[in-house]
Amino acid sequence: MAPKIHRHELKLSHGPAWGGQRKTFLTSVAFSFVLLQLLFLANMSLLYGSQYRDAYRTHHMKVLAVDYDGGVVGESLLGAYRQLKGDTFPTLDIRPASEYPDYGTIKEAVCQGHFWAAVYSLSGASERLSAALQGGTAATSYNSSNAIRYVYNEARYPTTEAGYVTADLQQLIAASRTVYNQLNGTSAYGLVNQSDSAAIEAFLDPFTASSIDLKPTEQGTRVLYNTASVALSIVQQFFFIMAINGISNGLSLFSRLTVQTNGLIRLGFAATYTFIGSLCWTGYIWAYKEDWALTGGQFMLIWMLGWLFMHINFLILDTASVLIPMQFMPFFVLTWVILNITISLANFDQSPSFYKYGYALPAHNWYETFVTITSDGCYNRLYRNLPVLFAWFILGHLLVVPATVHRCRAANKQVEEEEKNKLERQRTHNSHREEKGADADGEGSNRHSADAESAETASTSDSDTLSARRTRSNSVAYGPSMPLAFAALSRRLTQNE
């Protein structure tokens, strides 16, 4: 039977059970409550702010427009843009055909990332349409999609390309047909060969558009590349750092081994763990790529890029775990994850200018390099991406060295304090035994009891102080860690020694 619980036991105690700590407890909980609310408020505001009213910044996205036709079809296309032009529509950068003498130069301009897309009327489109309206062979062979064409690179930002670029270009083509009917509908009707069904069809469907996707990226997992994959690759490093610290704590490695040995061990594990982690990371991208056309060489490049990105984050988190107090380390990890997700997710043309600080963060440069690899060299920003990534890589190595030195010093200081505390307790114990033997009468015994009690109180106070110092030293040397997960393993290894 379950034990009975008395009503007075359910009441919040105000008595000695709290040890005078009730106010401290409630204050600490309230402080943590407020800090966590502010932490998540700030991070989610940063994340949501990058997408806030992004549709009204669509006009920052440039689309190349060239009229090779020079007739009513090209005029209809440009006339439709004048109707649709606004904040929620991409800006058409209208250039003369002389700047782009052939269609290949337009594809190259989009591939290089100078424009989000390009739309152009094909040479002779109006003439072919006029001939088709008159019937005969020209009508039967007429292809309405051979009038306007647009080019885009879906691999750049797949959701942006689908939600804004291609959707708006299709809207532009539909509006062009309406403008064509307004400009040329009446005169075109007079040219139609009423006895030729192909000519009538050409009149009813004067032109549509064909498209060229430089790198089709239609797999469902494409939305995870610059979101969940970024977050998990960072968190993965933090968990491993906690594991290393937990095992090192159980074996007291930072106090038993030299700084050089500890540094080499951590750097070796960092390189190996991130190397294997990036292989697995690339593997699950590959396993779920569906029909995404990638080669073995691209697999290797993505693997090496992931290795660099993960290694950078390992070094950053390892250094931060020394510089930042252990109780605030989760705050830093969450903020670092959200910062990088926000920047890798954000398309700077549609985000507030504030977010352009992301050019300096690892995740943005990783993602742009990832796009360059997967789109067969298109959107090449390696001149900026690689220097930034390697700058983080070098900075991480420069910072992790003094961080490791600081860990080892903190661990050695902890050992020294424990030894000092042990000797002090031993001296106190021996002193009590000597005084106990010297005092024979009751008065001496009472005096001894009072002195012993005073000494014990002082010893307890000193022990508490040393315990607090030991906790701080331990948090610097080994925190953050997962001691519970690896305690059994550490004890087993210690016993084997």
TrEMBL record:
Q: Which UniProt keywords apply?
A: Membrane, Transmembrane, Transmembrane helix
Q: Please note every region of biased composition (Low complexity).
A: 455-468
Record-linked Pfam families: DUF3533
GO CC aspect terms? membrane
Q: InterPro entries from the entry? A: DUF3533, MNNG_permease-like
Under PANTHER family, the record lists:
DUF3533 DOMAIN-CONTAINING PROTEIN, NITROSOGUANIDINE RESISTANCE PROTEIN SNG1
For bias type Basic and acidic residues, the affected ranges are 419-451
Task: Look up and give the organism this protein is from.
Answer: Capronia coronata CBS 617.96
Q: Which residues form the DUF3533 domain?
A: 33-396
* Protein name listed in UniProt: DUF3533 domain-containing protein
Q: Which domain of life is it from?
A: Eukaryota
